[in-house]
C-alpha cells in the first residue's frame, strides 16, 4: 500500500470501453489489493456488462447522476441519484443506463479488479468485440457469465454479437414469473431487501423507496 492519494475532480486514468468512460480513482497497488474504486460515465444505450457473477469480489455501486436499472439475482432495482447497492460475490448482476442522458456511478470491487477494465478497454479500441471474446476475458479475471436456468432467452449466448447481448439486458418481472425485455422497468425495485414494490411511481423521477429490511 502506498501513502495518501489525492485526486482532484476529473483526475485519474481514463479508460474508454465502447461508449463508456471509466476513471480509475483507487487501484490495487494503492490499497494493498483491498479494493479498487472506479467512476463510470455511461451513455444512453451504450456499454452494459453481461449478466455475470464474481467468484472472488464483492461489488458496490453508488449512483452519482442519472438513472440505471440494476439486475441483482432475479430482481430489478431502479437506481436514481443517491442509490446504493451491495452485491456479494456469487450473486448474478448487471446494469444499464435507462435514462436519456449520460449517467454516472461509482463502483467498488473488493479485492481490486481494475486490471479487467484495463484489458477490456484495450480490446475495445479496435471496435466492440463479440460476446465470446468478452466472456473469455471475464473468465480470466474470475467472473462467470450468467447462464439460463430454464432456457430463458433473457441470458446471452456465447455466439451473440454485442448489440444482441445489449438488447437482452433489460427485463421486467411479469405475474407469470417469466422475464420479458422492457426499455423501462415498471417498478423501482422488485424483491431486493430494503426496498418495497412501487409500481405506480414515475420511474424517471422517483428514487427507490426504502422499506423494512
Any descriptors?
13 strands, globular, Jelly Rolls, alpha+beta, 3-stranded antiparallel sheet, disordered C terminus, 213 residues, 6-stranded antiparallel sheet, single chain
Description:
Strand 1 and strand 2 form a beta hairpin. The C terminus is likely disordered. The protein has one domain: Sandwich (Jelly Rolls), CATH 2.60.120.10. It has 213 residues and is an alpha+beta fold. Strands 1-2-3-10-5-8 form a six-stranded antiparallel sheet. Strands 7-6-9 form a three-stranded antiparallel sheet, with no helix packed on it. The chain has four helices and 13 strands.
Give the SSE map:
Elements: E1 13-17, E2 20-26, H1 28-31, E3 36-42, E4 52-54, E5 58-65, E6 68-72, E7 75-79, E8 84-87, E9 93-97, E10 103-110, H2 114-124, H3 131-140, E11 143-145, H4 162-166, E12 172-173, E13 179-180
Antiparallel strand pairs: 1-2, 2-3, 3-10, 4-11, 5-8, 5-10, 6-7, 6-9, 12-13
CATH class: Mainly Beta
Instruction: Report the order of strands and helices.
Output: EEHEEEEEEEEHHEHEE
- Main β-sheet description: 6 strands, antiparallel
CATH homologous superfamily annotation: Jelly Rolls
Please name the CATH topology: Jelly Rolls
Please count the helical segments.
4
Termini separation: 36 Å
> Radius of gyration from the CA trace?
17 Å
User: Care to count the β-strands?
Assistant: 13
Classify the secondary structure makeup into a structural class. alpha+beta
Return the domain count.
1
Q: What is the CATH architecture descriptor? A: Sandwich
